[in-house]
Amino acid sequence: MADTVLTVAVPSKGRLKEQADDLFEKAGLGLHKTGHERGYTGAFDAFDDVEVAFLSASEIVHHLRAGRVHLGITGEDLVRETIPDVDACVSFEVPLGFGRADVVVAVPDCWIDVSGMADLEDVAAQFARAHGRRLRVATKYFNLTRRFFAKHNVSGYRIVGSVGATEGTPAAGTAELIVDITTTGTTLRANHLKVLDDGLILSSQAHLLGAKEADWSGAAEARRNEIVAKLKAAL
Ligand SMILES: Nc1ncnc2c1ncn2[C@@H]1O[C@H](COP(=O)(O)OP(=O)(O)OP(=O)(O)O)[C@@H](O)[C@H]1O
Ligand SMILES: O=P(O)(O)OC[C@H]1O[C@H](OP(=O)(O)OP(=O)(O)O)[C@H](O)[C@@H]1O
């Protein structure tokens, strides 16, 4: 194998893996594992100087941020949540049309007078008077939530971290409302939650991203352009 000029991070597991694999297949890049079947490195038949690193969607964000890989496939929600200065760190090369999920603010159905973000500050004030504390928002999207609530001038809340079963937290009594992703809306409906009218924080999908901190000298840019062109042609 020639010296590596470019490294591409590809989801090794989880929701984005299968569709990323299908896309590389359609693009005719010939993605395959190198070393043993359970290993985490790969290569493309099409190029002998490109290395593939199989990583989880969340790890890919950190590798892109640090410039440890040149290109990577991961979800926009994870990128915008994890990297504060997104534009300085990464470039959005190709939206891939899969891994779609909306990050939304949802409240209990029974909050009949609450339909938009503007209502939340009033609810927070009433809640503070009645219970002597702030509204609790369950989420794993701490930064997206803080930015969105600040943009809507909502401040009477605190975040409670939640990495699973977030939609169950209002019924369980551990939060009053949530910020989470929804695709079909089934989980929200099943948990008697409704999305606020202007509660869409981000419409996310998987992207091919470039790392601005990576070493783009030599043939790296040319290789990137070839990979981008092949993926775009396969969409
Ligand atoms: N219904 C869904 N539920 C969760 N994630 C979804 C859904 N639909 C699309 N996605 C997207 O998939 C990506 C997360 O994938 P995955 O859960 O495999 O990643 P991860 O955070 O690396 O996983 P892990 O927690 O195992 O490390 C996010 O970008 C998310 O927006
Ligand atoms: O709008 P829907 O189509 O119902 O999808 C949204 C749900 O899917 C995911 O959870 P999942 O139960 O798949 O597991 P996870 O939270 O462990 O990822 C996500 O966290 C939401 O809860």
TrEMBL record:
Reaction(s) this enzyme catalyzes, per UniProt: 1-(5-phospho-beta-D-ribosyl)-ATP + diphosphate = 5-phospho-alpha-D-ribose 1-diphosphate + ATP
UniProt GO cellular component terms: cytoplasm
EC id: 2.4.2.17
Keywords tagged on the record: Amino-acid biosynthesis, Glycosyltransferase, Histidine biosynthesis, Transferase
Presence of keyword Lipid metabolism: no
Any GO molecular function: ATP phosphoribosyltransferase activity
InterPro entries (UniProt xref): ATP_PRibTrfase_cat, ATP_PRibTrfase_CS, ATP_PRibTrfase_HisG
4Fe-4S is among the record's keywords: no
GO biological process, one term: L-histidine biosynthetic process
Pathway membership, UniProt: Amino-acid biosynthesis; L-histidine biosynthesis; L-histidine from 5-phospho-alpha-D-ribose 1-diphosphate: step 1/9
Residue ranges annotated for the ATP phosphoribosyltransferase catalytic domain, each copy included: 57-231
One Pfam family hit: HisG
Coiled-coil stretches noted in the UniProt entry, renumbered to this chain: none
UniProt similarity note: Belongs to the ATP phosphoribosyltransferase family. Short subfamily.
Task of the protein: Catalyzes the condensation of ATP and 5-phosphoribose 1-diphosphate to form N'-(5'-phosphoribosyl)-ATP (PR-ATP). Has a crucial role in the pathway because the rate of histidine biosynthesis seems to be controlled primarily by regulation of HisG enzymatic activity.
Protein's name according to its UniProt entry: ATP phosphoribosyltransferase
Originating organism: Methyloligella halotolerans
Lineage: Bacteria, Pseudomonadati, Pseudomonadota, Alphaproteobacteria, Hyphomicrobiales
